Amino acid sequence: MSSGVAARCDAKKLVRSPSGLRMVPEHRAFGSPFGLEEPQWVPDKECPRCMQCDAKFDFITRKHHCRRCGKCFCDRCCSQKVPLRRMCFVDPVRQCAECALVSHREAEFYDKQLKVLLSGATFLVTFGDSEKPETMVCRLSNNQRCLILDGDSHHEIEIAHVCTVQILTEGFTPGGSTRATGMSLQYTVPGAEAAAQLKLMAGEDANGSKRQAAAWLAAMHKVPRAGSGRLSSWD
Description:
By secondary structure, the protein is of the alpha+beta class. The chain has helices at 3-10, 97-119, 209-220; strands spanning 12-17, 20-25, 63-65, 72-74, 80-82, 93-95, 121-127, 134-140, 146-150, 154-158, 162-170, 179-187, 196-201.
């Protein structure tokens, strides 16, 4: 990708919405697949009472809209201001208790796991039915739209084209949980009838790359579903 194209992909602009300031991609096509659209607010005339506690709105009990779900609540049921990265808000925004809980979990993904995915890790990668794996560095692109694999060859897989992701595990750790060792992924290829597939496996070495690969896989397991209003792990 040329520097000019990359600059256009990363360009952002500041926009104001009824919910607050948002820093969004200059071109909609280059937005993150994890992003969420702002919801339509429930019209004031359709919500005479809080949609959580049923308190009646009046001059004392004012109504507020959750910036994530668009529903109408009283101040007590919609008092938290929480970062909402998936809608690109610059500042924390008002959310109901249920949405705030989800946004808190997503904030942890953006603050921790996303950095791991952007840094990448080394894997043994097998494409389709090939019997010979290739050593490649796999990372998430800066705009979060693609998985980039670099080795003797170069591949880019759009997140929006990924059908299924399965984290491969083995054994049990002392704490009683399984250990991630690889990932199996299916994705669509434009013009092809059948889905393509690849498998990433952490290599066996003593220089720390296996530990880095395990951390990358754990972060991948926390990726929010593209277009989903909830943070959920891949199946």
